Amino acid sequence: MTKPLSDMTSIRTRRADLADLDAIAPLFDAYRQFYEQQPDLQLARTFIEARLQKHESIITLALTGDGQAVGFCQLYPSFCSVEAAPIYTLYDLFVSPPARRSGAGQALLLAAHGLAAEAGIARLDLTTAKTNLAAQALYESLGWVRDEIFFAYNKRV
Questions:
Q1: How many H helices and E strands in the chain?
Q2: Half-sphere exposure of 59 (CA within 13 A, CB side)
Q3: Distance from C-alpha of 128 to C-alpha of 89, rounded to nearest angstrom
Q4: Three-state DSSP class for 14?
Q5: What does DSSP say about strands 85-95 and 12-15: parallel, antiparallel, or unpaired?
Q6: Angle at Cα 93 formed by Cα 71 and Cα 13, nearest 5°?
Q7: Are β-strands 12-15 and 69-80 bridged in parallel, bridged antiparallel, or unpaired?
């Protein structure tokens, strides 16, 4: 899926657009596989294309010095009724396995924070698996605070 990484020392980020669909789709497909979904590149492409076309999410790419996309972060705009303010939900964060520990995840999180600050967003929210200790350590190193008060629930429809 990914080429050998030639320049991991200069990870940069930028906001993605529809022209980046071919770079994002395989990363999104790999992300879904990480969460035990079947590979489906066309589904990944269609889903991301719709989010970008409808301006329903904000996607940031992590790129190596030679421009290879090695990770992405997807934010969904939402609102916090209690704070009566807009928030972003950081729903997807993925770095390809060869690029892990390169600083790409940190760069994506910092870019998300910067985008939120520029847009006047009150807060960023995310959830992660209890077993994803590496991600938890990264989040906490960047000032994210684990919620010890609320439980998260969901129900399939």
A1: 4, 5
A2: 28
A3: 12
A4: strand
A5: unpaired
A6: 45
A7: unpaired
Closest CA to 45 of 21, 63, 79, 69: 21
| Distance separating alpha carbons of residues 29 and 83, to the nearest angstrom | 34
Say if CB 75 and CB 88 are below 8 A apart.
Answer: yes
Query: What is the chain's length?
Result: 157
Tokens of 119: 């847009």
Closest Cα to residue 130, out of 122, 121, 139? Answer: 139
List the domains of the chain with CATH numbers.
Answer: 12-141 (3.40.630.30)
Please report, in tens digits, the pLDDT of each residue of the chain (157 residues total). Answer: 444 454 556 899 999 999 999 999 999 999 999 999 999 999 999 999 999 999 999 999 999 999 999 999 999 999 999 999 999 999 999 999 999 999 999 999 999 999 999 999 999 999 998 999 999 999 999 999 999 999 889 999 9
* pTM for this entry: 0.90
Residue with tokens 């790419």: 61
Q: Which two tokens stand for residue 76?
A: 């969904």
Spatial distance between the Cα atoms of 16 and 31, rounded to a whole number of angstroms: 17
